[in-house]
Amino acid sequence: MHKPSLYERMVGTIVKWVKPHLHRVSERFIERSVDEYAKDKPRFARMIEFEVRRRGDGAGLTQDVAEPLLWTGIKTVAAIAIASLTEFMKDPKIKVVGLATAAGIVLNNVVDLFRLVPRYTAGLQGSLEMAKDRWRSIEETGIDPFGEQRQINKGGLSEAALARKRAPVLPTSLMEQANRVSEQDTITR
Length: 189
Description:
The chain is an all-alpha fold. Helix content is 79%, strand content 0%. Helix 2 runs parallel beside helix 3 and helix 3 (59-87) packs antiparallel against helix 4.
């Protein structure tokens, strides 16, 4: 059994703290996106919700928020340590350099904190774009590559026309490839 490292436990703790707030951010984002793009398309609305939740509850939560928060805390502790160490130096120039360095690190961390929710929202936007691309592909081809592998017959296409739209299945084994080549030779003769 895998014993979580200190880093994993700390990220897990941060996730527990921030998840309720980010869940509300995700909900508002989903509502706005569905209203804007899929108001009368329930299947597209479910697709948007799935993609956005997958990002928001997974990578978005850890990579966009929890890990940056953890590293911001670590960098702030390092800045305080630098400032504390330089206080004991006798040379005033070293003290000023140490305090300026610590202040710069803390200021950078404040900027990182203000970027957390916009970074998270940008990840949600990327997931929305994936859902829109997937929907556009389904509308153009009638095939949902991640769905139930069934054709959506829009426009009353014949079975032959639908079959032409389907992507050819590529052979996976050498025997299948050999059979396909021999079939093509027979057809061309």
